[in-house]
Write a structure and sequence with these properties.
The complex is a heterodimer of chains A (332) and B (328). Chain A is built from 10 helices and 6 strands; from the N terminus they run ααβααβαβαββαβααα. Chain A is α/β, with parallel strands linked by helices. Chain A has one domain: Rossmann fold, CATH 3.40.50. A 6-stranded parallel β-sheet of chain A has the order 2-1-3-4-6-5, with helices on both faces. The longest helix of chain A is centred in the first third of the chain and has 27 residues. Chain B has a 7-stranded mixed β-sheet with strand order 3-2-4-5-7-6-12, with helices on both faces. A 5-stranded mixed β-sheet of chain B has the order 9-11-10-13-14, with helices on both faces. In chain B, α7 links the parallel β6 and β7. In chain B, α3 packs parallel to α4, α8 crosses α12 and α9 packs across α10. The termini of chain B are far apart. The chains are: A alpha/beta (332), B alpha/beta (328). Chains A and B meet through β2, α5 and α6 of A and α3, α4 and α5 of B.
Chain lengths: 332, 328
């Protein structure tokens, strides 16, 4: 399994630290606001899994494409999408990232390359392949990175997309965030192989790649290799990142189906404090890291205040944007 | 002007658009050098090459999903589903992803893509290779649907579908593949959402789609010759957008409405039209609206049974003749 790499420059490492902190602080607040009733519907938090989003985002070009799942706050934030419209979307406000039409599970910001959060398991793998095919055809040099959970490896679209991407040598990187649980059931209990993604790579002629998904340096190292490989025309990669969600699957799920010792062991390997310790050991001034945390805490508060102040969507938008002409008319 | 089969019109329509716009690409099972199992894409691989005419594995989710991903990033893909029945295999991509993503992202994403598919009965393929699926799609907000009934319309509606900025499903009727007609030379581009009056009449309006159009016309000719009933036949051509104005105008003139639908009875497109006319054209009507459909059954394979299931010229003639006595 790939672990820490040495040659990552200081700016990149600080950027990854900041991204992880932004994701963490945002999601902690989102969860609090869910319990307060301000965030409606559902949330699927990625607390504990931030290193995967941060490590990859730092390896991507501004015009590369991210495709992610309903557990997509981290990946959307990691591409630089501002917090206020995300909060507003979670609150159901008109200034939401999706105008109040999508919600937590569908965060998208095309201008940031965040090409959507997909809430039907497996659907976005073929779609990411299509974006990669488009980049290949247009010779744009763009790469699509597609994040999904371990549970996705057991649905048909996973296999269809992996095979077709390999045959077409599409510039796409498939990233399985293996957090150990498909939803409430351990992935091992419902999967024929130990490593749901890595053990299947050979079926598509791909290298088996496992990485410590709680080590952002290690993630970044495999990410830049895979992204470069895709960009230079050497085709897709399939990466399995081992990680853990600190909370339950969604909403108020306390995740009680998981042994206490297991949860404690993974929390002891929390990607953020461990990375902070590594950065300090590497000579980064603690004050600089404190500043990142303080700035982020302020940014979350400012974004929340802005989103709280926003109005609910206007009734006028209910029947807009079904079609490209902005409307929804189906007859004359 | 050249005589063209419906089959050849498909390849002509695709080629017309691929020559015009390098972002138009075609993918599907056996669409490349094989030219398609129904020979609908013959010649395209030779003209446009493997980059633009791509064979895929038997992976309908990947085909349709890839078309979506390509459409949201600058291409104008045409994806072929060999049989429309296979939409069931990739329904998530069509319904949850393609149809909804523009709305869910508040207009951030445009999906200019075409899903072409061999649709309908008549080849004795049985219940899993003969369905008419246009009603499934019609029930989903965010999908446009056309179903051409003749070679000229095939070229024009296919071109309109490719140029449209929204997802369009093009239902290509298997029973019409060998039909021939004169097709004008040069570029043909139609307008989505426009029905056409293909036979003028004053006594009754018959609305039909795809393979039911030639049957409705034949029935109307027989009704005129044998029973003195002059039926107006409307080729609907497009279900979404729906040309309700053409239907209401015809009913205002004839005061009677029949629909001829290949689909099973429940929730066929004719039910929606009947609802609209009952609501907005009620005072034009002299008699109940009558839907002529396939019974609510899976399609059988034997010729005798399939022919009994799908509306025939005889059934249309007999139904219209009998019901014309209603409230006469």
């Amino acid at each position: 399994m790939a672990t820490t790499a040495a040659d990552i420059d200081r700016d990149t490492r600080l950027r990854m630290y900041r991204t992880m902190v932004e994701c963490r602080f945002f999601e902690i607040r989102a969860q609090e606001l869910f319990f307060e009733g301000l965030v409606r519907g559902t949330t699927h938090l990625g607390i504990g899994q931030e290193a995967v989003a941060a490590g990859f985002a730092a390896a991507m070009r501004a015009d590369d494409y991210t495709f992610c799942t309903y557990r997509g706050h981290n990946h959307t934030l990691a591409r630089g999408v501002p917090m206020a419209p995300i909060f507003a979307e979670l609150f159901g406000r008109g200034t939401g990232l999706l105008g109040g039409k999508g919600g937590s599970m569908h965060l998208t910001s095309v201008e940031h390359g965040a090409m959507g959060s997909y809430a039907i398991v497996g659907a976005h793998l073929p779609i990411a392949l299509g974006a990669a095919w488009s980049a290949q055809y247009r010779k744009s040099g763009q790469v699509a990175v597609c994040f999904f959970g371990d549970g996705t490896t057991n649905i048909g679209a996973f296999h269809e997309a992996l095979n077709m991407a390999a045959v077409w040598r599409a510039p796409v990187v498939f990233v399985c965030e293996n957090n150990g649980y498909m939803e409430y059931t351990p992935i091992g209990a419902v999967t024929a192989v130990e490593h749901p993604a890595a053990d299947r790579a050979s079926a598509y002629g791909l290298e088996s790649i496992l990485v410590d998904g709680n080590d952002v340096d290690a993630v970044h190292d495999v990410a830049r290799t895979a992204v470069d490989r895709a960009r230079t025309g050497d085709g897709p990669s399939l990466i399995e990142a081992l990680t853990y969600r600190h909370g339950g699957h969604s909403r108020a799920d306390p995740g009680k189906y998981r042994p206490d010792e297991e949860v404690a062991a993974w929390k002891a390997r929390d990607p953020i404090p461990s990375y902070r310790a590594r950065l300090e050991a590497a000579g980064v001034d603690a004050a600089a890291l404190d500043a990142i945390e303080a700035e982020t805490r302020d940014a979350v508060a400012v974004a929340e205040t802005e989103a709280r102040a926003a109005a609910e969507p206007s009734p006028d938008v209910l029947e807009t944007q079904v079609w490209n002409d902005g409307g929804s008319s189906w007859r004359n | 002007m050249a005589e063209l089969t419906y089959r050849a019109a498909i390849a002509r329509g695709i080629a017309q658009e691929m020559r015009r716009d390098p972002m138009v690409v075609l993918i599907g099972e056996d669409v490349g050098s094989a030219g398609g199992v129904f020979k609908l894409t013959e010649g395209l691989f030779a003209e446009f090459g493997a980059d633009r005419v791509r064979d895929t594995p038997i992976s309908e989710q990947a085909i349709v999903g890839a078309a979506m991903g390509a459409a949201m990033t600058g291409l104008r893909p045409i994806a072929e589903l060999m049989f429309s029945d296979f939409f069931a295999v990739t329904w998530d991509m069509v319904v949850n992803q393609i149809a909804k993503t523009r709305y869910m992202t508040d207009g951030q994403v445009s999906l200019p893509l075409v899903l072409r598919t061999a649709n309908g009965a008549g080849l004795r393929f049985g219940a899993q290779h003969s369905q008419s699926i246009e009603n499934w799609a019609m029930a989903i907000p965010g999908l446009k649907i056309v179903a051409p009934s003749n070679p000229r319309d095939m070229v024009g509606l296919l071109a309109a579908a490719v140029r449209d900025p929204d997802p369009v499903i093009v239902c290509e009727h298997k029973a019409l593949f060998a039909d021939k007609a004169e097709v004008p030379d040069g570029e043909i581009v139609d307008t989505l959402g426009t029905a056409r009056v293909v036979r003028v009449g004053s006594d009754a309006t018959i609305v039909a789609l795809a393979a039911m159009v030639p049957k409705a016309v034949a029935a109307a000719d027989r009704l005129a010759a044998d029973h003195g009933v002059e039926a107006e036949v409307i080729d609907l051509r497009s279900l979404v957008p729906l040309d309700t104005a053409a239907i209401l105008a015809s009913v205002a003139k004839t005061s009677r409405l029949f629909t001829v639908e290949e689909n099973p009875r429940l929730c066929g497109w004719g039910a929606e039209i009947a609802s609209i006319v009952a609501d907005e054209g009620f005072y034009s009507l002299d008699a109940p609206i009558v839907r002529i459909t396939t019974p609510h059954i899976p399609l059988p394979s034997a010729a005798a049974l399939e022919d009994l299931a799908v509306p025939s010229v005889e059934r249309i003639v007999e139904t219209v003749r009998r019901r014309m006595d209603d409230a006469a």
